[in-house]
Write a structure and sequence with these properties.
The protein is an alpha+beta fold. The chain is 21% helix and 29% strand. It has a seven-stranded mixed β-sheet with strand order 5-4-12-10-11-9-8. Helix 11 crosses helix 12.
Length: 462
């Protein structure tokens, strides 16, 4: 772990963060007083336990009556999984809040619609880190492990190699940020090979309350729909659920939103919570509709892409034509460029003719993202294509590196060529030895109409 200088030591608590062994960080306090509940110094009220099981039983019955498989997922707390990194005296006291207080309160076996993947994470943590050192959340590997556990319970699954590529990045985390540390850790990142279409209102909100995220995967192995109510833990898992679902609608809510179920008509419903939120449980009977949560918010102005996706998904049952029209519209923005592979243009590229590869730039930063090309590490390549443009500008290719560049785009990893009005033969030399397979093409730096043809990506002989 690379870090800025600090004088904190294992066993010390600063700003609600506990310094663990080997530079591991843990959330100590916070609104849920995590360690107080994990060590038994505090206990959830019996009414919280009753509300929890009552909520889930009613949710299961509601979905069962509509023929919808239902599952509730509880994410084990990081200290429960990584107990060996928790310093004394806490390490010897930490125990699962869910198992010790909730599951133990049942007079019968745990209902089949509850999934607490502690054993799964403990079994897999020796294959790779399942939680991040500097963050409360799981690693990509941990999220994928739990996602596969969920999908197995739902009778679905996919081959990870078909959907994800790997890269290493230096990441910080929410716990390091709480301490104002500039620490980073190398982390294995799993990048979707097929670009996902993601519509998220988070950037238009002052916090994560009322967050809704819609993920569409045209290359999913099924055409099924999934509706999720949960928190940030399951939101980070969306990419690893997406290969199994054509549409995923994530709603940040601790309560069940039955009106959303009726309108979305999902094939599956999942509710979820991080274990620390079991310190207190709200009754679903006190739930307020998410549909009206932002009606009076004068500072909420989501962009058209999100609004269109939101309206389409919640029109699925009663206004199917609107959903189908939206599907046809977004399909035009997800296609193959011969020689480069599957790509996803950003919001500043309008597709005029998908077959003719004709486009309009509507801003100053249009780009195509290619998550995985044929590029192999250790080789050099030349990318060429003809571009007809009605403006003079500059075309830029951003490339990634498998080492040093951390799999990310950077200004120092670019090749630029001038674009003239009319036809331009664009040539980009992409030199090894550490080229990554991910590319980004910025065709123009201004508004204009352009088309692309005669694309080739070839190895340069040594």
């Amino acid at each position: 772990m690379r870090s800025s200088h600090h004088n904190f030591h294992g066993g010390e608590v600063h700003r609600s963060v506990l310094f663990g062994l080997d530079d591991w960080l843990f959330l100590y306090g916070g609104g849920q007083q995590q360690f107080a509940f994990l060590t038994g110094d505090r206990q959830p009220a019996s009414t919280d336990i009753e509300r929890f099981f009552d909520n889930l039983a009613k949710r299961s019955t509601y979905c069962q009556m509509r023929g919808i498989p239902y599952l509730h997922l509880i994410f084990p707390s990081k200290p429960v999984v990584m107990t060996g990194k928790v310093p004394p005296p806490w390490g010897a006291k930490v125990q699962s809040l869910f198992l010790s207080r909730y599951a133990a309160a049942l007079s019968s076996v745990l209902p089949s619609y509850i999934f607490y993947p502690l054993d799964l994470l403990l079994a897999c943590k020796h294959q790779g880190p399942v939680y991040r050192k500097l963050d409360t959340h799981m690693t990509n590997f941990g999220s994928q492990v739990v996602a596969h556990g969920v999908l197995n319970k739902l009778g679905l699954d996919y081959d990870s190699a078909d959907f994800f590529s790997e890269c290493v990045a230096n990441l910080s985390g929410d716990l390091a940020q709480m301490l104002a540390l500039h620490s980073v850790e190398p982390a294995l990142c799993l990048i979707p090979i097929n670009p996902l279409l993601v519509y998220d209102n988070r950037q238009f909100l002052p916090g994560n309350t009322n967050n809704i995220c819609i993920v569409r995967n045209p290359r999913a192995v099924t055409d099924r729909r999934l509706l999720i109510f949960g928190d940030s833990f399951i939101k980070e898992m969306l990419p690893f659920l997406s290969p199994a679902f054509r549409d995923i609608i994530y709603v940040r809510s601790e309560t069940f939103q039955s009106d959303m179920v009726e309108l979305c008509q999902p094939d599956f419903v999942i509710s979820s919570n991080a274990e620390r939120y079991l310190s207190h449980v709200e009754s679903d009977d006190s739930s307020k509709s998410m549909f009206f949560a932002l009606d009076a918010a004068s500072d909420y102005h989501p962009d058209k892409l999100f609004v269109d996706a939101y309206h389409a998904q919640f029109s699925y049952r009663f206004h199917r034509n609107r959903y189908e029209y939206w599907c046809s519209e977004v399909a035009a923005s997800y296609f193959e460029l011969n020689g480069l592979g599957l790509c996803s243009p950003n919001g500043q590229i309008e597709v005029l003719d998908k077959d003719a590869l004709s486009f309009r730039s509507t801003g100053i930063d249009p780009f195509f993202l290619f998550p995985k090309t044929m590029i192999e590490e250790g080789k050099s390549y030349q990318l060429e294509f003809d571009m007809v443009s009605d403006v003079s500008s500059t075309a830029t290719v951003y490339y990634t590196k498998t080492t040093g560049g951390e799999g990310r785009f950077a200004e120092g990893q670019t090749v630029r060529v001038p674009v003239a009005i009319g036809n331009t033969r664009c040539r980009f030399a992409l030199n090894g030895p550490y080229l990554g397979s991910k590319l980004r093409l910025d065709p123009l730096t201004c508004t204009g109409i352009f088309s692309i043809s005669c694309i080739s990506l070839v190895v340069v002989p040594e």
